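Tip: read the tokens left to right.
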């Protein structure tokens, strides 16, 4: 009678014949963590600067609003105060929007530089890993061929 093939043993032998390099996987994981940390730092820094810009804009607005809300002697003075407030608001809004645009530009460039550096690192690591995997697979095939 034919003996049943032990598939578990066969699969184990096959997996042992093709070793996996976990070191390269660990390196890729570490590099991914490092990139995530750098990107998170850039995003948090940008959020902090954004909050500073918003806070300054709010403080400037409140200061101008306090000035506008003071009692005036003549009705025409109220119109002048509102006109001054509107003009000051336009200036502050322009200044704040320019600061936000500059911040966004800086974050975009920083992110781009980080991604380009990560891409270069990854391509170099991938090439090294593929060469090593190719060599390992080649030697495993030779061993398997010699065993047959």
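Filled-in amino acids:
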């Amino acid at each position: 009678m034919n003996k049943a093939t032990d598939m578990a043993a066969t699969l184990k032998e096959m997996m042992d014949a093709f070793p996996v390099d976990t070191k390269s996987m660990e390196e890729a994981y570490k590099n991914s963590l490092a990139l995530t940390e750098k990107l998170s730092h850039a995003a948090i820094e940008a959020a902090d600067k954004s909050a500073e810009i918003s806070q300054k804009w709010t403080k400037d607005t409140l200061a101008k609003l306090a000035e506008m809300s003071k009692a005036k002697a003549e009705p025409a003075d109220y119109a002048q105060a509102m006109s001054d407030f509107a003009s000051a608001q336009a200036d502050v809004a322009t200044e704040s929007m320019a600061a936000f645009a500059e911040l966004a530009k800086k974050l975009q460039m920083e992110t781009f530089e980080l991604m380009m550096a990560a891409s270069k690192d990854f391509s170099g690591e991938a090439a090294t890993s593929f060469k090593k995997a190719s060599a390992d697979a080649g030697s495993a095939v030779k061993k398997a061929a010699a065993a047959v």
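The radius of gyration is 33 Å. Residues 75-147 form the longest helix (73 residues).
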